[in-house]
Amino acid sequence: MTRALIVVDVQNDFCEGGSLPVVGGARVAADIGELLHRWHSRHEDGPTYDVVVATKDHHVDPGHHWSLKPDFAESWPVHCKVGSEGAGFHPNLDPQPFDEVFYKGEHEAAYSGFEGRTAAGEQLAEWLRARDVTDVDVCGIATDHCVRATALDSASEGFATRVLTRLCAGVAEDTTAAAITEMTGAGIEIA
Q1: One of 57, 81, 104, 144 is an active-site residue; which one?
Q2: Among residues 15, 80, 139, 146, which one is catalytic?
Q3: 129 Cβ partners below 8 Å, 6+ apart?
Q4: What pLDDT is stored for residue 88 in this prediction?
Q5: Domains of the chain by start residue, with CATH
Q6: E-assigned strands of the chain?
Q7: Average of pLDDT values for 29-53?
Q8: What string of DSSP letters covers 126-186?
Q9: CB of 150 within 8 A of CB of 163?
Q10: Candidate list 9, 13, 57, 144, residue with the active-site label
Q11: How many C-beta atoms surround the C-beta of residue 126 within 10 A?
């Protein structure tokens, strides 16, 4: 078994003070940062991941995904614009070097990390398979949007998938609960 951690969209714009903040985003960033520190230092109580990757919203012009009058279902305020401070990893994450970063949504809406590509153009599923990954843990922002989409795609790609809810922040209680129900129904472990 080879296990990967996917850290989803822990970016400034999705944390408090950003253009599309999720309550608890900064706390989640700090908690994931602590987990990454234990992993990188090979601390005895640290997690045992073979690879750790991150996804980033990476918008240049995503069309109707951005709106001045967003409906917060299909359209959103401007966020994670390439080159902006909002697109950067949140400082609480204190990211050690990830094994890879996958950028998504340059010219379209993109919720799943599996829609992302490396700077060299490699897709997440093929990157994981090339490293013999069988099991995937998912954490990040937001439980009811990009975490959900990434976990569902992970499961559909055949990876044994687990969502670490203590390391996630959701937009709203009802949509987060619905996302957890949907993920459970897809055979995803909720931890």
Answers
A1: 104
A2: 146
A3: none
A4: 95
A5: 3-190 (3.40.50.850)
A6: 3-8, 51-57, 100-104, 135-141, 160-169, 189-190
A7: 84
A8: HHHHHTT--EEEEEEE-IIIIIHHHHHHHHHTT-EEEEEEEEEE-S-HHHHHHHHHHHHHT
A9: no
A10: 9
A11: 11
CA distance 60 to 136: 29
What is the chain's length? 191
For 115-159, the pLDDT digits (tens) are 999 999 999 999 999 999 999 999 999 999 999 999 999 999 999
146 catalytic? Reply is yes
Verify whether residue 9 is a known catalytic residue.
Answer: yes
Helix, coil or strand: residue 77: coil
Residues 6+ apart with CB under 8 A from 130: none
Residue 104 is among the residues annotated as catalytic for this protein: yes
Task: Give CA–CA dist 11/144, Å, rounded.
Answer: 16
Tokens coding 129: 């398979």
pTM over 0.85: yes
Cα dihedral sign for 177, 179, 180, 181?
positive
